[in-house]
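Box 3.1 A note on notation
Throughout this textbook, protein chains are presented in two layers. The first layer is the amino acid sequence; the second is a token string describing backbone geometry. Keep the layers aligned when reading.
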Amino acid sequence: MKDINNNVQKVLEELVHANNEIGLQVAAYLDGKLVIDTWAGFADQVSRYSVDSETLFTSFSISKGIVATCIHILADRGLLDYDDPIARYWPEFAACGKEKATIRHALTHRVGLPNDPPYMNIELMSNWDAACQKVAEMKPLWKPGTKISYHPLTYGWILGEVLRRIDGRPISQFLQDEICKPLGIKGMYFGITQEKERSVATLKNAPGLKEALVDFGISVNNPMSDPAGTFNLPKIRHSIIPGAGLIADAASIARHYAMLCSGGELDGVKILSKKQIIIAATPEYEDPKKSEIRWWTAHGLGYTLGGGTGLRRGIPFSFGYEGIGTVGFADPDRKFAFAILKNLLDISPKKEMITATRILRTVEKALRII
């Protein structure tokens, strides 16, 4: 394992020294065992504080795959059906024509709320009850279920509130009680405590990121137009923002996916049934004429799927989620789970997955699974 980690670490160090990255953290499981856990660079570029095994990173949309696993646990226990209307559990959500929007629609970005709640600001983002109330009051941009468009933040509030209404616990506590503690995961949170603050890597926007996000349609007044500035705020880090605010280390994310690619059980601890995982990772139908989003591949119930082009080309049965240049996924065929996190944020189509792709190929070669 030491030689394998050294080989991967050399690549990480090359990426940092070439000024392509600031800090990186990579982990991989094979056959249920942690085989790669390494890092390089700086958690904070100004103070030159180094990344280590306990460094935590804001993982952005990787968050959505973790939310999906929480929802699948409820489904596995018979506490919800994917085709249940959201309003069955959250009556206020039926407002403005959303009474037939389902949990399946939410998992597959078809609710019709890809936009943020009105007057989005830091205070609203960090206030769970206020954010959910605003989401419930929103009018969908189209009839739920008829069109696909990526729901960056509303995905987390919708599914997180459904979970809370069914289970009674906030998704932050559910994650700890039902996934992290049973699996011995110590570095994955929806909202960190004050004592963890010093462990979180400082984010930095790549040149041109703000302009690219504005061109993408995000208002300059929206906190998401400055993702580094927003998610570096302690107020945001301590808040439950399950659409984009998961704070974790790579080994914890990889362990979560190792459980999924091992049939829902790891080290004798069962979290999900294999049947439920198969359902969750089955491709959902997508009509290209009714889709406004670019998946790297296809989409299941809350996970992006492998195959096609991009980072996971040639890994057709993998499932997980991508963030801003980062990824976490399970590959049941090879019993392989992988995660990479970083703190330089770049959404340029030519750069977003370059680092992740190079590292993944290095890992696969080192493990002789390519």
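The chain is about 35% helix and 15% strand. The mean pLDDT is 94.
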